[in-house]
Every structure is written in structure tokens, then in C-alpha cells.
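Tutorial handout. Part one gives the primary structure; part two gives the three-dimensional structure as C-alpha cells.
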Amino acid sequence: MKLNTISRYFLAAGLMSCAANAFALEAWSGQAGGNTIEVIFDSKVYSNRWYVNADNCPQGASAENWDNPWSYVRDATKAEIDQYGNPTTCESGSVTPVAHDAFSAEKDYAKDDIVAYQDVTYEASRPIPAYSFTPGADNPWKLYTPVPDWRSSQVYNKGDEVKVDGQSYEALYYTVGENPSIAGNQNPTGTNGRPWKPLGPTVEFTQEQFKNAPQINSIALYEPGKLAVHKGIPYVAQTKVKGVMPYDKNPWAIYTNWTGTKERVGTPKNPWPAHVYAPYVDFSLNSIPDLAKLAKEQNITHFTMAFVVAKSGEQCIPTWGTAYNLQDYSQYSKIKALREAGGDVMVSIGGANNSPLAAACKNVKDLQKLYYDIVDNLNLNVLDFDIEGTWVADQDSIDRRNQAVKEVQAQWKEEGRKVGIWYTLPILPTGLTAEGLYVLENARHVGVELAGINVMTMDYGNAICQSDGTEGQNIHGKCATSAIDNMFTQLKKIWPEKSDKEINAMMGTTTMIGYNDVQGEVFYLSDAKLVMDDAKKRNLGMIGAWSIARDQPGVAKQVSPEHSGMTAQQAPMYAYSQVFAPFTHADEKEVVTGVYKSRKNNLCLDVKNGQIRNGDRLFTYACSGSNNQTFKFDARERLVIGNSQSCLDIQNGYNVEGRNIISYTCHTPTDTNKNQTWTWQNNKFVSQKEGTQRCMTVGNDGYVTLSTCTDNNVAQEFEIYRP
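Part two.
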């Protein structure tokens, strides 16, 4: 999404103070703004007296000290510290990194040794002798191929090499007819937009040199530029090398100290829904909303956290927006609280600004490890890759990303782990661009298994989507639904074996609510209702919004990171999310864990007396989230009660109208009776017993019995209760 840059502009200009304060207590992480902010720092709660900048640290502030915009309010409670975090240094968001010894090619390394090289940290996966592998580099033996002469009529693409008058040159991108020996066509640093990078004198060998080239062995030390042969194939040493064969893989691996990260982010209680509303959170902004509060009060239970990017274009280090470390960000307390409330997050890697990891990391193995570590340590069920801006046309990073994703998916498959992969791409009302189609076609060719394709139905730059002043005509909404219609046709061509239902479930639509970056494009509340209706009709996999911070009114017609540009009369606080939030739902047999509230009486399913004994009846009672109110589908589709060994059971095991639902010891694997197996379908618990289809039904007395399933019967409908 494009608002990161705009966000920082407004922050720097001090314009965010105009937005209403929608943020609760949080850990200090360099917040800025003029509204009242309360933060925890070093076990104390501070509030700002006036506008605070990101570099204003609460350290040393007091109620009497007016040199600091922060003022001491009170001591933080243990519960607040546990929930929000407790930073103790003025390095916002991250702890000071540990310094490691610099890599030396002349040194032997043992397994698990850690080194720093070009601002990236690596760990040895095995003993590594001197003059063998450089961290992050390819094999030091390069296959020798003669460099062809440059020809004026030849088309050259990125990576092609040519020679002119004994000098070699590499094409940095598409070029034809531009002589690389002319200084005006040369680009030594990759920064002036010219097509050719000088490589120095051309390395060429005579037939006599080929004839006398030594065989590569693990004992000899070869100097850079040395020609040697392995199984009759010539190679050239790129560095001083010893003990490496041309087929060996680099044993250095990217290293990140993830200690404590899993605990900081918490663990999701439920799988990611098959159909979800997950608005974006710009996770590197100074003001981030209370996600758990939004889940409890607005029923917005899932979010897309943006954006993980490389620290710089040359540093293969994952960060939040280049500003914060991934492993120890203080804002993780908000994700943990959300997960404790039953919600979850998807992390998005990429975005329009900064460099994606696939561009900064030149080694597929390094990229694969980073993707694996991000998912593993942030406890993710779903991972998104946002590919936009110039990066949607950068084939090197596209190919590298797809290869790394394919390899990490193979790793997860071996471990029996399921991780959904989404790609987010730009789109026009006519469908995906040629560049976006290449991303997907290459992914399919490589073997990437995509859970879905989310498209940015925004900022079209198309005259037919100009909608300012047309509220109620749904012009921008129609552009969004047209984009989805046309993408459906495109995806059917890429995945012809998939059914219409499966293609629909693979698609997601993310709008920029309110005023878009492109002048004249506005997404009104009526547009949201049109998009919601279309998403429900198709049963799409996802609805998104850029962004949750913008889902509030503000200065009319202004493009802002903090509001939609709508007035309070047009779109009050969280009006867009109130339209989209009900979209989140599970597939019929999707496993759900939690406390279930009856839509008949707003009470929760409960095993009477709380002791979970054989024969205790299921009824409804005031919601508390206690052990006897918690139910989890297991692999055999039984509803296990809390942490017990008991399951919900049809009394006496018969599919008969009016039978009581009771607790009973869970059947052994050899017991094939289906009186303990259930299907979650259309918010109902449907028995899998043979015969008439019957559902759990809440009676007027609050007790639950088995009754014939009927449509639009609230006595048979339940929803997840979120305390």
C-alpha cells in the first residue's frame, strides 16, 4: 500500500493531532502526536502534556519537570505490564543488538559460530574451513562460458554479459543498440539509470590452458581467476578458494536471535478463517490501535500487519518498515492481547516503499530461512507477500521469492505444518496487469501453492473510477467488483483444474477506504456495502481495508494516514469495519476452538455443574469462558470439553428427536459410533449420525437437545463468544 510515505509526511509535519484519540494505554515505542497518549515506560505510566515527537523519551520525566513533554501519572500495574510490555531504554521498539566478530575468509569456523558480514549476522551450520564460503555468497566456483561480443542489433536483458575491446560488461536491464564501451551508457554503481555495468578485463582462456587445467580437489588452494575442471566441465574461481566443490552449498545461514519472540506475540487460539475481514495495520506508525479492544467492542478480530521489509536495499535483515527489529518489537503486546481475545494476525512482507526481502537477499537459501523463521517465531497461520510498485516488474526478486516460498512450503510439508500463503497485487477494473499475471504464472510454474490472491482495489488512475462528489452512485465500488470479475476469468486460466467455488475462495479485495491517493478517487460507505454484497455472493477468501487507523472521520476530502477524509455524517468511527466485519466466517468443517454463545438467549454452552462427569447435561449459562464452557474440535471431529478427556455426546447414542446432549468419556479410535462427531455448518452443530439431519438445539429451559435442523432457527445457531 502507498500510504506509508504519506503517513510519515503527516507525522513529521505534526498534522496528526487533528484526529480523534482512539488509542488506549500502550508500551512506549516512540509515539508522536498532539492528542492525549498514555504509555508505559520502566514500570511507570506517562501522559503527554503537549505534542510529543518520536525522539521524546519518558525517561526522567516527572509531574513537576516541564522540560519533558511526558508527565509521570502513576505506577503501572503488573497486569498492564504483562499485557502491554515494559520498555526500559530509550531505543524505541528494539533492544541493542549483540555485536559479533566480523567474518574473515582466512579463519576456520566451527559449527554454530556466529559472524557479522556486511551488516548481516550469519551462523555456521557445520564446520567451515578458511578460504571456502563467504556468508550470503554463491559457490565460489563459477561455470566458465565464453563472453560473446556485443552486437548492436542484439536485445540484452538483465544479467547478460558481453565484451568490447577486451572489456566485459553486464546488462542491468533491457537494452538494445547502446554500446557498453561508451561512458555515457555505463552505470558502475547501479544508480544513474544507464544499462551497462563495467566488469573489467574479459577473462578468456586458450585451448592450451583448457588442456592443462587442473582437476578441482579439496586440498589445493586456488587463486581468484584460476581455471580448473570438474568432470570435464571448466570452472573459474571467483575468490581464493580451498575445500569447495562446484556442487557444494553455502553452509552459512542468516542468524537472528529470536529468543523470547514467541512469548511476546502469543499463540493464536483458532485457525485463520477461510473467509475473513482483515484490515491493514501500519505496524511501524507511532500510534497503533488497541487490537484486542477492537476485537471485543467492534468484532474486528483479524488484522494484516504491514510491512516487513529489508533494513536497506543491500541488507538481508527483516524489519518493520526499516525502523524496528522483528524479534523484539515492543508493540507485540498488542498482538498477544488480540490472540488472547480469540483473534489473530497475518503478516505482510513487502509494500510499495523500501526494499522487499526478495530484492535485498540475493541467496534463495537465506530467503527461505527468513520466511521460515518469521512464520515460526511470530506464530503465524498465514503469510502475505505484498508485491507492488516497481517490484511487481522486477523479475529477479519475483523469481527468487517464488523459489524460496516453494522451498519453505516443502519444509513445512515435511513437518506437517499448514501455512496459508497469499500474494497481494495491484489491479485495474479490467483485471490484473501483465506484471501481476507473470508473478502468478511463475509461482504456478515453480510449484508455489497459493491460498489466495488479494488485490488492491484502489488508486486505479482510470477515468471511469473518478468518483469524488458521486456518493451513492457506487462508482468506486463498481470498479472494485469489476476488477474481481475480470480477475476470476484470469485465475481460471492459470488454475483450470479448480472449480468456480475454489477460485472465488482464492480471491481477496482490499480497498482504500475514503479518499484515495489518486486525486478524484473516493471509496464511500455505499461502495463498501456493494463490495460486501459481492464478497458474500462469491464467498471470497478475504476482504481488507487500508487501513484500520483511517476508519474514522476527519478533515473533509483530505488524504490522511489517520482518517478517511469523510465527515462524521458520511462515515463515523469504524463505519467501514461495521460493514465488513460480519464477513468473517469459517467453512463448514473448519476447526474452531472457543466458547459458543447461543443466538436464542445470548447465553453460552456449558456442561452443568462444571465437573464434566459422564451424563452431565449440556445447557446454556452466563458466559464466563471457564473450562466447562470451552469446546475444541479434534482431528476426529469430536467436540472435546476444555482440557478434559470428555466429549459432547448424544445420550444413549441414538439419532432421535429430543435426545439430551451430555458429556461423556471420548471414544477410543476403534469406536466408530458417530454419536460424538459433529460438523460446524452455517453456525450450527450438526450431528454426523446416520439418518435425519439433526442439530444441537437450545430449548426454552436453556437445555440443549437434538432436533431436526431447520433454516433460520436461532435456537440452533451459535457464535464464538469474545469476552
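Part three, for discussion. Residues 2-23 have pLDDT under 50 and may be disordered. The radius of gyration is 29 Å.
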